[in-house]
Amino acid sequence: MKTLGHWINGQLVDGTSGRTADVYNPATGEVQAKVALATKDELDAAVAKAAEAQKEWGATNPQKRGRVMMALVGLLNRDMDKLAEALSREHGKTIPDAKGDVQRGLEVIEYCIGAAQMMKGEFTDSAGPGIDMYSMRQPLGVVASITPFNFPAMIPLWGMGPALASGNAMILKPSERDPSVPLMLAELCKEAGLPDGVLQVVNGDKDAVDAILDNETIQAVAFVGSTPIAHYIYSRATANGKRAQCFGGAKNHMIVMPDADMEQAADALIGAGFGAAGERCMAISVAVPVGEETADKLRDALVPRIEKLKVAPYTAGDDVDYGPVVTAAAKENILRLINSGIEQGADLVVDNRDFSLQGYEDGFFVGPHLFDRVTTDMDIYKTEIFGPVLSMVRAENYEEAIGHAMNHEYGNGTAIFTRDGDTARDFANRINIGMVGINVPIPVPLAYHTFGGWKKSGFGDLNQHGPDAFKFYTRTKTVTSRWPSGIKEGGEFNFKAMD
């Protein structure tokens, strides 16, 4: 059976710990590979080598670093099909969805071609007599990114691009559930001209994560995953003096106003709620129709669409709507939460608990589900299900609807569907959530804006990609210089900013 190791100093190496994790084919339930799990010593050795490599890379002209990013864009486009197939094989996504995963990461690399522009500082001449001041943005040194299973191309690229373009070395710890694509990305970085050792891919579990958090050389940690782990990583990293940006769970609401185009809203909910089997932190899992008539219309529009969804492995063609969830444990947890919704009084309108795909009975497939008359005290409302389950929470009016979204502990993304500009503008201004869509169900910003949630969906002051990423992966140094004209006698013991 194939065993996946690590990417160290520009080459694939075997693990030495003797510990491995199973990598499944989610469609069949079979183990298709094993991935090595690093020890603290392996992680520390990778960091030490990265620190050496970073010295020369950090001193490299930022325009030259941008050219590496430019070359990487071409390679990602060249290998798009190969990357998508490997991603689908381990994650279970459809091929079009897998290509979207790569594409959204590629767009951040495109943005990072302009690293020289992002690294510019500020300058003030004549701040005092003969005195100039200027600031420089300089790399932190060695940084780390701990990435999730649900976007094995996009999230690593979101971290790699700004960190490497800024002159840092990076330790990438991908999910052990689907590690092949991150290793492939590392090979492409080398082909693009990235020096050996600047990017190290270390596979592992909690032992590797804790080694990252405790390693004194690592200056910053980025994480995407569940909220409890995000909080743990943020707390431990910052306690050790590191910068940290940690993004956690979500429970994204989509408010549907009475004046909304109901067909448009229903189509949006199908893609946003069931795409990628709901395994997205930006998935819409709660629809909030305003008024009983709106709710009934929305329900009537959703049911036939949900019943037509094609659930199958990615090999069944590009018309597959979504595939399996990532593990058997994930499937069991989704079904447990569905049963809790029934027990707590929600109306299960579309019930696919007995879903089974002929020939793939051992796969991790979960059929689509729709709940109506969900209330805010139910587990299916409070918990991030991370599966193909959409809940409808009926609201009497706009204020009640917006209150549901604002009062939830998560604040990653939200959306409103309406034809009324005043309502949309009020919603955008008042909502206490990081990413907002107006007639857009999944408002993931493009690469030149920043991505990040509020409340328990995000920990840290700076977001992913866009200008925030370059701020996160650099520190500012301010220089005050004096080149006095003429000759002065004696010493001066005070500094005058201005005469």
From TrEMBL:
Pfam families: Aldedh. It is an enzyme of class 1 (oxidoreductase). SUPFAM superfamilies: ALDH-like (SSF53720). Keywords: NAD, Oxidoreductase. Its EC number is 1.2.1.27. Residues 14-479 form the Aldehyde dehydrogenase domain. NCBIfam families: MMSDH. This is methylmalonate-semialdehyde dehydrogenase (CoA acylating). It comes from Aliiroseovarius zhejiangensis.
